[in-house]
Queue: 2 jobs
Job 1
Amino acid sequence: MIRPTRTWVRLARHTRGRCDLGHIAGAILAMALLLSAAAVLAQENDKPIIGQASVIDAGEMDVDGRRLRLYAIQAPGIRQRCRAGSMPWFCGANSAKALRELIGERNVRCEVRERDAKKQILAVCFVGNIEINRELVRLGMAQIDRRLPDYGLEENEARASRRGIWQGVLMPEG
């Protein structure tokens, strides 16, 4: 037989065997609020971000006032230089230019995949039917994120053709 603890005995005396409907209703209301907040957050992550894009660098842009990074790729920073033979060139600026040219004046549609450790939105973006992330890798203007080899075939093709950053080597920033 289970013996009641002092807390339960005090509670039983306090409520005299009645259910405290106020506490139960409050708990149900709190649970409903938590569930609706979770549903709103899930819908926000599912909703595509659509609008004009402002390119920050080849891997980051503002779309409809929201800053996001392109998912599954690593693009050179705007000041990143590369070396092709003995000639240095600004591959980061060229990659950003390629992204600007790809987008043009058209709206982009970005599908949120996740948030990184810095809470930045990571998204796969499209201009028309062209997947921007994949196209930048195919053009050799970005490399794949090794943890997410989604575009491995495109990177191998760009490397073999020595396109973009694969013409030479990335130089240390600084």
Job 2
Amino acid sequence: MSGKKRIGRQKFQRFRKKQDPAQNVKTLNPSFSTFIGGSHKAWLDKLLEKALLSTHQETWKKYVSLWGPLSDAERQEGVRAALHPDCEYRDPRTTTTGTTELVSYMEHYQEEFPGSTIEMRYFLSHNDRCFVKWEIEDPKRNVLMEGSSYGEFDAEGKIVTMCGFYEMPEPTEVG
């Protein structure tokens, strides 16, 4: 075998059993990392970073879609896929704890802005945290509001913390 190291079949099977490719790379045993070595390891690190960014961005997209006009079943399915059950949400108007309170707030939001959607305009992520810029659009795609959010992800890639920032409109005096 011309001096090349080989991975044992058991190690390879354990590596393949993991579902998330990003998780596979993070859990490699040291002998496999040594096997990769040098510039290949740098390439693998960049690949891992892109996979995590992609995973976090996709999860955040699922979360953002939950604010749109959805059926109860669609919203519950999205909640299970994107959010930790004990997640915390904050914005200038409210604070919620847990998915039940957050879903109630999302439903109230849809009553206030019927048919509106949130469109992500910018996403930046590192170390299981993200910064997002977004716009709320009405069904005719007119921008109603813009803002930014900060989020945190757990080890499974689900969102545990969301904090939205936007300007509150000035109250108007009634006559």
